[in-house]
Amino acid sequence: MLCDVQGHIHFLRIKIRKMVSLKGKVQTVLGLIEPSQLGFTMTHEHLTMNYSCCYYPPPSGQEALSDQPIEMKNLFWLKQNPYSHKENLLLCQETDAVREELLRYKAAGGGTIVENTTTGIKRDLKMLKQLSEETGVHVIAGAGFYVDATHSTETRAMSVEQLTEVIVNEVINGADGTNIKCGVIGEIGCSWPLTESENKVLQATAHAQSQLGCPVIIHPGRHSDSPFQIIRIMQEAGADISKTVMSHMDRTIFDEKKLLEFAKLGCYLEYDLFGTEFIFYQMNPEIDMPSDNERILRVRMLIDEGYEDKVVVAHDIHTKNRLKKYGGHGYSHILENIVPKMLVRGISQNKIDKLLIENPKQWLTFK
After folding, report:
1. Mind listing the pLDDT tens digit for each residue in 247-267?
2. Binding-site sequence positions
3. d(Cα 62, Cα 51) in Å, to the nearest integer?
4. Which residues line the annotated binding site for a divalent metal cation?
5. Highest taxon of the source (predicted)?
6. 27 located within any domain
7. Model-level pTM?
8. What's the total number of domains in the chain?
């Protein structure tokens, strides 16, 4: 009994020592860095993942297109129906193309990618480490669990305490059987309506964050009430909302009054679908996906309303057709195309640096 107690105390001391070492730092797949080293940062991307969990059958009469190779003649169809093409969902097959894109991103001034692939959509930490080593781009990996549809039987059976332990361990010791550590919790997947398993993961995320002082990023359900529900659950569980990003705001809250009401809650507002423009959004047909020009105007509105310290941007690349190899915009789209348009629309370079450098730096630094 005494040996067990002493062993537990020793374990706790090591854990506390590791958590203390994180304070004031940013944790990448290659180790700890100073926040000042981040540079221009995309706060929500994927470099390798499998999104087959979200396959949608194609429109009637177009079934044959699901299995055809990706060719020039079907690129527009693919852009409009990205989740109906089976191969398109396998970003994990495009390591060489992603490596080339990261080099272009770095050449365009990019410094850091927050890689949001969590348990359930084929996180590959060894590959993230390799890509970072080969390109010189800082990569920050995500801990935790994606949406309920990807939760394993084991995950569903875990208590909040057990889920918390898993998440904390992925940050301080390493994930997926490696010693490669995650530097952010998320993207934590939520559906609408929220499921029991997702609710437990949210509570565990809050508990882990309160222990670690780390950044959190959330994937909300596709309903304008979802972000409010998530923040309430996390607040009740002890989360630090000021260190939390709510993703996909561009497809979630459209009403300006409701958006400003949500902004008052204090989390970061992420417009992370730059480059994505659909005629018909398969995952929620009720939504008219905004254009990049509309995203820019919404970001400018938030800045004008005093939220310049709470907005971050990204592309959320997660399918092959978004890569330049397949005629897509790639990871450097914001730096190459959106920033110049923001300047034209009256967003100053100082404000742009807030969105791309200062806000990510504040968010990603451990407290």
Report:
1. 999 999 999 999 999 999 999
2. 44, 46, 187, 219, 248, 316
3. 21
4. 44, 46, 187, 219, 248, 316
5. Eukaryota
6. yes
7. 0.95
8. 1
Give the three-state DSSP class for 5: helix
- Burial degree of 255 (CB within 10 A; 0-12, 13-18, 19+): exposed
Question: Is there a domain that residue 206 lies in?
Answer: yes
H or E segment to which residue 130 belongs: helix 125-135
Position 3 scores a pLDDT of 56
**CA distance linking residue 244 with residue 20, whole number of Å:** 20
**The domain spanning residue 136 has which CATH number?**
3.20.20.140
Residue 287 phi, psi dihedral angles, 5° rounding: -90, 135
What Å distances lie between residue 1 and 7, 12, 73, 152, CA to CA? 10, 17, 70, 34
82 located within any domain: no
Q: Could you tell me how far CA 97 lies from the centroid of its own chain?
A: 20
Q: Flag whether 313 is in a domain.
A: yes
Residue 12's domain spans which residues? Answer: 2-51+90-364
Distance of CA 49 to the CA centre of its chain: 12
Q: Write b or e for each residue in 263-296: b if 16 or more Cβ atoms lie within 10 A of its Cβ, otherwise e.
A: bebebbbbbbbbbbbbeebbeeeebebbebeebb
Q: What 3-state DSSP class applies to 142?
A: strand
Q: Which two tokens stand for residue 286?
A: 């009720």
Query: Taking the chain (367 residues) in consecutive chunks of 10 residues, what is each chunk's mean pLDDT?
Result: 52 63 97 98 98 96 96 96 97 98 98 98 98 98 98 98 98 98 98 98 98 98 98 98 98 98 98 96 94 98 98 98 98 98 98 98 98
Residue for token pair 């300047």: 343
Query: pLDDT at position 19, please?
Result: 74
